[in-house]
């Protein structure tokens, strides 16, 4: 009986221990299951958060790119506008500079006009009509300003007064000038040093030499390149002493009694802008 009771009690202890171990196992399994679920949930949150951050970064990149494109477009428009304004300012500065130079030229013209020994009318060349044989200049003064056909026309370049030609025709407010290089122009002149007299004629072009005729060959040894020729005053048109040109070449033809002399005009007709018409100096406007 004792033995049976001992056995029964031992079995009960074994069963109790087994049940306890089973309960502990179940509790551990439950705890492990919760940890796994928590780990899975945490991992899912981490992955999803990473995707959200990547999407946000890509969106921000494209937003910044679009904003940069708009900013570049705006800056380009501002640049074009500023470039256009700068170009306009440069044109205005060029116009102002040209007006300043024109003002300076006009002031110098008025100063020269006041010191000339002859009564004169300053005028501006408004047209040029050069030809193979004939050439004329148009000026902005006419009969209303006291100009008459035959009036001498001079200019000042590089500080020197030089002969341009004469008034050929007058309108009320404009006139036509016959320049010295016109083949129809003939000016009574003399050499400033030797006082030999001759006639200066044009050759038809503003950049061609003038011709001094009727200087005798015997005077060849007395002449030099660079000698100055002035008006002689031996006509009813041009007063004496106005610079005409300087000798650039001389030739003595054996069959002629006169020298062939070429003159470089004092006035450069290619850059002529302002002239002075000497009024009241000629007594016969039709004579050349």
TrEMBL record:
Membrane-crossing segments per the record: 15-31
GO cellular component: plasma membrane
Coiled coil start-end: 72-109
UniProt record, GO biological process: regulation of cell shape
Pfam families found in the cross-reference section: MreC
Keyword flag Membrane: yes
Presence of the UniProt keyword Transmembrane in the record: yes
Domain Rod shape-determining protein MreC beta-barrel core: 125-278
InterPro entries reported for this sequence: Cell/Rod_1 (IPR042177), Cell/Rod_MreC_2 (IPR042175), MreC (IPR007221), MreC_beta-barrel_core (IPR055342)
Family, as annotated: Belongs to the MreC family.
Role, per record: Involved in formation and maintenance of cell shape.
PANTHER family, per the entry: CELL SHAPE-DETERMINING PROTEIN MREC
NCBIfam families registered for this protein in UniProt: mreC (TIGR00219)
Protein name, per record: Cell shape-determining protein MreC
């Amino acid at each position: 009986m004792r033995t049976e009771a001992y056995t029964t009690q031992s079995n009960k202890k074994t069963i109790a221990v087994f049940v306890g171990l089973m309960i502990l196992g179940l509790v551990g399994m439950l705890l492990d299951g919760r940890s796994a679920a928590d780990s899975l949930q945490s991992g899912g949150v981490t992955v999803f958060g990473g995707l959200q951050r990547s999407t946000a970064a890509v969106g921000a990149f494209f937003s910044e790119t679009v904003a940069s494109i708009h900013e570049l477009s705006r800056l380009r428009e501002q640049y074009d506008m500023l470039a256009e304004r700068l170009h306009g300012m440069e044109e205005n500065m060029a116009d102002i500079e040209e007006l300043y130079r024109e003002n300076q030229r006009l002031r110098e013209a008025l100063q020269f006009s006041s010191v000339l020994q002859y009564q004169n009318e300053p005028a501006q060349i408004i047209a040029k009509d050069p030809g193979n044989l004939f050439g004329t200049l148009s000026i902005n003064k006419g009969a209303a300003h006291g100009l008459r056909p035959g009036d001498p026309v001079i200019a000042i370049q590089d500080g020197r007064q030089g002969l341009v030609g004469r008034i050929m025709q007058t309108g009320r407010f404009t006139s036509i000038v016959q320049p010295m290089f016109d083949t129809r122009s003939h000016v009574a002149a003399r050499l400033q040093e030797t006082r030999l007299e001759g006639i200066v004629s044009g050759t038809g072009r503003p950049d061609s030499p003038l011709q001094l005729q009727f200087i005798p060959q015997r005077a060849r040894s007395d002449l030099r390149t660079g000698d100055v020729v002035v008006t002689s005053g031996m006509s009813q048109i041009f007063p004496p002493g106005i610079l005409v040109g300087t000798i650039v070449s001389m030739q003595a033809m054996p069959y002629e009694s006169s020298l062939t002399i070429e003159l470089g005009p004092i006035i450069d007709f290619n850059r002529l802008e302002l002239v002075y018409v000497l009024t009241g100096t000629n007594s016969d406007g039709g004579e050349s």
